[in-house]
Specification:
The structure holds 2 protein chains of 2 kinds. Chain A has 8 helices and no strands. Chain A is mainly α. Chain A has a domain of 92 residues: Rna Polymerase Sigma Factor, Chain: A (Orthogonal Bundle), CATH 1.10.1740. In chain A, helix 2 crosses helix 3. The longest helix of chain A is centred in the last third of the chain and has 26 residues. Chain A is globular. Chain B is mainly α. Chain B has 12 helices and 2 strands; from the N terminus they run H-H-H-H-H-E-E-H-H-H-H-H-H-H. In chain B, helix 1 crosses helix 3, helix 5 runs antiparallel to helix 10 and helix 8 runs parallel beside helix 10. Classes of the chains: A mainly alpha, B mainly alpha. Chains A and B meet through helix 2, helix 3, helix 5, helix 6 and helix 8 of A and helix 1, helix 3 and helix 4 of B.
Chain lengths: 190, 278
């Protein structure tokens, strides 16, 4: 396979050519995996982190306002780097040493502390979402997901008497979620 | 904590549009006046954005799993596996080749001479020199003492007869009389002493004499290397007789390279030297 240029890749994303994601993965997957493996991660960690990274890139790069200010490899590398550091932090790993790949050195942009903090908050939210009751997970999910539904639609879909009841439930669930997240933020000093 | 929870309820109700108009106005006024309350609201709103992002990425993850088969090995992985395989094959080939060489070498080795055979071979090459040996009459314009010449002739005669102890005794007497400047001749005599010792197997006792002179020769030979070849050659034989084969080879190498009188014999000798067997 000939290596597609960044411009070709971005063009494919703009055209919503779904084949582009396979190309990106084939071009950069090994580099991403190597980073995790070189920094205290095992094979499973590497696969998880690569999936997370590809998903994050998929979510961000498809937005019309997305602008790539560095090489694609560097961009993906920065995503996995902060994701993995946040994961190590969450696991309470004492290892703070990161063996960077010089080819993808991150220059400028968001400060490392900010990026790492955001990634840590992201993990806190992800974990606390899973702690919600099934009903709460459903209603919060419906509310936040892209192209979110109106409270009337949610009420009908989840079998609430009216939108008011659905709103009350959603407010309770979101408050519980946020309270738990904020408690954890304080613990982690985020 | 209670106040924090109350604030959280307020933040959420404000965001959901559940506050009455007066409460909404009071909330907005507090945001402007109370920094702590305002910071808390910012954090809460940021949390809201993160929750939305988490869902966004979760959705993206589902879609990306449909688009990419993460279980399929990457091209680089294939190459890595192939490279590891190639490395293993190469290593195996190298080991096999090394084993073959070792086997050939072992098979070939017994055809070589033993250390004592090598010494005898080397000695035979110099033995014939005895017939043409003449004690140099002059020493830089100075005539030598008749007894010196006589002693040397007797030493040679004893050597020819195989009376090596006797020959050596006469040679050592000569050594005492030789002037320091007469260095080449001195080395010649020492070489013959070495040859006597090799034959009697007593070289251990006097080896200091050789080694002391060999280091001296090594400094001198830069200017006129060929003149010292005989001494080098005999010293190599002495090392071989002591089974210091590897060391002997180091002395034999330069003689071959210089291409002097002893180069052919030395080449043959060197080829016969066993390096692993005692």
């Amino acid at each position: 396979m000939t290596k597609s240029s960044t411009e070709e890749i971005l063009d494919m994303i703009r055209r919503d050519d779904r084949a582009v994601w396979g190309i990106i993965y084939r071009q950069h997957g090994r580099m991403l995996r190597t980073f995790v493996l070189k920094n205290s991660g095992n094979k499973e960690d590497a696969n998880d982190q690569v999936q997370e990274t590809m998903a994050a890139a998929y979510a961000k790069m498809r937005k019309p306002e997305f602008k790539l200010t560095c090489a694609l490899g560097t961009y993906l590398y920065s995503i996995i780097r902060f994701k993995w550091l946040a994961e190590l932090k969450r696991r309470g790993s004492t290892s703070t040493m990161v063996f960077d790949n010089e080819e993808f050195e991150i220059e400028g942009g968001v400060s490392e502390i900010d990026a790492l903090e955001k990634e840590s908050k992201f993990k806190v939210v992800t974990n606390n979402l899973l702690k919600l009751s099934e009903q709460c997970q459903k209603i919060v999910g419906m509310f936040y997901k892209l192209g979110k539904k109106s409270m009337e639609e949610i009420a009908v879909e989840l079998g609430y008497a009216n939108s008011r009841s659905a709103i009350t439930k959603k407010t309770k669930c979101i408050r519980a979620l946020k309270e738990n997240c904020l408690i954890e933020y304080n613990v982690l000093q985020l | 904590m209670k106040e924090e929870n109350q604030n959280i309820a307020l933040y959420q109700n404000y965001l959901d549009g559940l506050l009455s108009d007066p409460d909404k106005r009071s909330f907005e006024k507090r945001i402007l006046e109370d920094i702590e309350f305002s910071n808390g609201f910012d954090k809460y709103k940021e949390l809201d954005a993160i929750i939305a992002e988490v869902y966004e990425v979760q959705e993206a993850k589902k879609e990306i799993l449909d688009l990419i088969d993460f279980k399929k090995p990457l091209e680089g992985d294939d190459l890595q596996v192939a490279s590891k395989k190639r490395h293993r094959i190469r290593l195996f080939a190298q080991l096999a080749m090394a084993a073959s060489f070792a086997l050939i070498w072992l098979v070939w080795q017994p055809t070589k001479m033993s250390s004592s055979e090598v010494v005898n071979f080397g000695f035979a090459a110099v033995e014939q020199e005895v017939n043409s040996l003449n004690y140099p009459v002059g020493n830089g314009g100075k005539t030598r003492d008749f007894s010196e010449i006589r002693n040397f002739e007797l030493a040679v005669a004893s050597f020819k007869e195989g009376s090596f102890e006797q020959s050596k005794a006469r040679l050592l007497l000569l050594l005492e009389k030789i002037e320091p400047k007469d260095s080449l001749h001195k080395l010649n005599i020492i070489s013959w002493v070495m040859l006597c010792d090799i034959n009697t197997g007593s070289s251990e006792k006097i080896s200091g004499l050789y080694s002391k002179n060999i280091s001296w020769v090594q400094k001198l030979e830069v200017n006129s290397p060929n003149e010292y070849d005989f001494f080098h050659y005999v010293y190599s034989l002495h090392l071989l007789s002591q089974k210091k084969n590897r060391e002997a080879k180091n002395f034999l190498e330069p003689i071959v390279k210089r291409g002097g009188k002893y180069s052919t014999t030395t080449r043959e000798l060197r080829q016969q030297v066993r390096f692993l067997l005692p």
